Amino acid sequence: MNTTLNISAYKFIALPDAAELRVTLLQRAQGLQLKGTILLAEEGINLFLAGSGEAVRGFMAELQADARFSDIAPKESWSAHQPFKKMLVKVKREIIRMDHPAIHPAEGRAPAVDAQTVKRWLDQGHDDSGRPVVTLDTRNAFEVDHGTFNGAIDWRIGKFTEFPQALLDHKAELQDKTVVSFCTGGIRCEKAAIFMREAGLAHVYQLEGGILKYFEEAGDAHYTGSCFVFDERRALGADLSVSHQ
Known about the structure:
By secondary structure, this protein is an alpha/beta fold. It is 30% helix and 24% strand. The longest helix is centred in the N-terminal third of the chain and has 14 residues, at 18-31.
């Protein structure tokens, strides 16, 4: 019986008080008997939490009471067991490491495209302007091996810090195409899309909410395999349940 609610969420927002926020959020999460990881940095928040539905949603309601997080939108899935061993709240230099200090998503997002629009574009083979559409997997190679969009571009990167150079090496292949960057939950493909636009690619979008949101809204259309997640569940199928493939 699936009694554990799992959520993932992030937001790029200036957090000069990240160190103080760490103490508050750790106490709040421990008080609700939640487990998981919250990463804080001056650029924002990235969280993965699991616990009872009431506790998880209570934590999120209190977080969203802070105006900075009022519009944060978690992705939800259920499991039979708690997939995390402990509760960690850490302050880092970046909430997703890219080692490219010029990228500041909080100063303006790259354009996003929702799951149904991506599905429609892939159904028809082009975007609404008639431009060829390609999907670009911004995840690490071992994650891609669990599953990805059919025909997705995969540069076999070993870690996200390798993405900027990979893009510069392959940039010519993406010219004159509409590029939809995607990842597990949206955070990496958001940074990737901003970097690609700054590198001069004009038609770049991020998949809103990543693969998990796509599964929720469009199922497995144009996708083969599962989606790797960084907890004990290992991978989720298109129905957001644990994959045993």
